Amino acid sequence: MKHFKTRLKFDAVDTLHKFLEYMLTQEVTTDDDKLHFAVLSEVKKVLYLKLAKVQQDYMCNFTPAQAIALRMLSTTYVTDLTTFLGNKLHQLSNQINQQYL
Questions:
Q1: pTM for this structure?
Q2: Which DSSP string do the residues of the chain spell out, in sequence order?
Q3: Residues with Cβ < 8 Å from 50, sequence gap 6 or more?
Q4: Which residue, among 87, 64, 67, 86, has the nearest Cα to 77 in the 3D structure?
Q5: Contacts 24+ apart (CB under 8 A), 17-26
Q6: Residue whose C-alpha is closest to residue 26's, from 42, 15, 13, 37
Q7: Which residues of 39-70 are buried (b: 16+ CB within 10 A; e: fewer)?
Q8: Residue 40 to residues 1, 51, 56, 62, 82: CA-CA distances in angstroms?
Q9: What is the pLDDT of residues 3-47, one digit of tens each?
Q10: I need a labelling partner for 7 at 20 to 30 A (CA). Which of 38, 63, 88, 96 fits?
Q11: Around Cβ 10, how many Cβ atoms within 10 Å?
């Protein structure tokens, strides 16, 4: 499987990074959730490294597991698609769905 590549604006990368920081402080009990959160932790690290250099646009590359974890985040935890984060995650989810599923 190929890596998932997408272009994101600074606001989207920053908001997603902050949301992942919050999500990763939540308590998880099942092995499925632990695995999901472990991969989301990798996504957070990718975004953190991107934010080290402030730009308007970022080209983000995610492994297939990271991309699918983002899609799961969108479909499981973010239900309000009218928010900035919900809208961005929904767009990413659709792109990931087209590439992998």
A1: 0.91
A2: -PPEEEEEEHHHHHHHHHHHHHHTTS---SHHHHHHHHHHHHHHHHHHHHHTS--SEEEEEE-HHHHHHHHHHHHHT---TTSHHHHHHHHHHHHHHHHH-
A3: 13, 58, 60
A4: 86
A5: 17/44, 17/47, 17/48, 17/51, 19/85, 20/44, 20/47, 23/73, 23/77
A6: 37
A7: bbeebbebbeebeeeeeeebebebbebbbbbb
A8: 19, 16, 23, 11, 23
A9: 999 999 999 999 999 999 999 999 999 999 999 999 999 999 999
A10: 38
A11: 14
Residue position matching structure tokens 């900035």: 84
Best CA proximity match to 1, nearest among 73, 72, 66: 66
Give the pair of three-digit tokens for residue 19.
């949301």
